[in-house]
Amino acid sequence: MAIADVAEYAHLTESDLEALAAELDQIRRDVEASRGTRDRNYIRRTIAGQRVLEVAARLTIAATSGRRGWWLGAIGLAAAKSIENMEIAHNVGHGQWDWMNDPEIHSTTWEWDMAGLSSQWRYSHNYRHHVNTNVVGVDDDLGYGVLRVSRDQEWNPSYLFAPLRSVLLALGFEWGIALHDLYSEQERATTDVEKAAHGKALRRKIGRQMVKDYALYPALSLVRWRRTLGANVTANVLRNVWAYVVICCGHFADGAEKFEPKTLENETKPEWYLRQMLGSANFDAGPVMAFMSGNLCYQIEHHLFPDLPSNRYAEIATRVRALCDAYGLPYTTGHLVKQYLMTVRTIFALALPNRFTENGRLERLDVEQLQQVSAVP
To answer: Fatty acid desaturase domain spans which residues (predicted)?
Structure first.
């Protein structure tokens, strides 16, 4: 759909949109003007804390005996990897900390602890996704090419396997993202040599990542290498699933609108702001969950201001929510479980052609019913 086709937002006039954009611009100016020592301290403490947690987790895996110590180490390592992936690498890659002029904590130099190349991700994510949020056929992150999350996506028989694909994508999310970013880079390459270079660069990164996680650290554990290898695999899978859940809740849950390509034609900045607000969804989170999600529980605020420091999103959210109330706009949020179950419902429903689900029971199954089903042993 186009924004003008959404009846709930037709009450906004052009002057309303201009006024809304001015308010959002003021939020940006306020945050940019107040960035300083506390923000620097935040990201540096986060990086230092993440590294300490990773070392402690790896030592726990290698030095303790029994399953309790193994699980403690594996979960600690998964947490460390999630923090590095989401609160550090993702946000550094957005340029949120470039203003510090720190050569280490910079979008052009940080390489994350995942299979994919951060340089390839930056184009696919920062441009193809954030500029064209939820525009069908333009935003490659809309279902990642394997899930159907909008009726406007043309159905084909392969989508019958979408529920299974969603499980596999969650388990191997880092690999799916790596390939997704590679294809995006190769699509804009102008020569076969350039395409091959992108593929070679990704293979080198994958090689380094696999050696580190599945050869070097197990080898350092000597006779306990199997214990370390199993913990590394488990930590990576847990990190992948958590990242997948967070991303799905921010983009595919009910309330996150999808748009036709014509929406981009002559789109003004106020209209871009509005599309970001309508095309994103938050989930409710306290400080710990917000931190562990890279503050992507504030997905609406992140899409409005992707390059502002993530530790400011909570305070920005208060002002954005007030604007939504003032202009009669929805502020889509909810419990994490509810948001994710709505995503699961969408994936199952849209695995079938529209004629089977437009008025079908699967579409009418509400979230409370899904929660009851999921609670059955």
So the answer is: 69-333
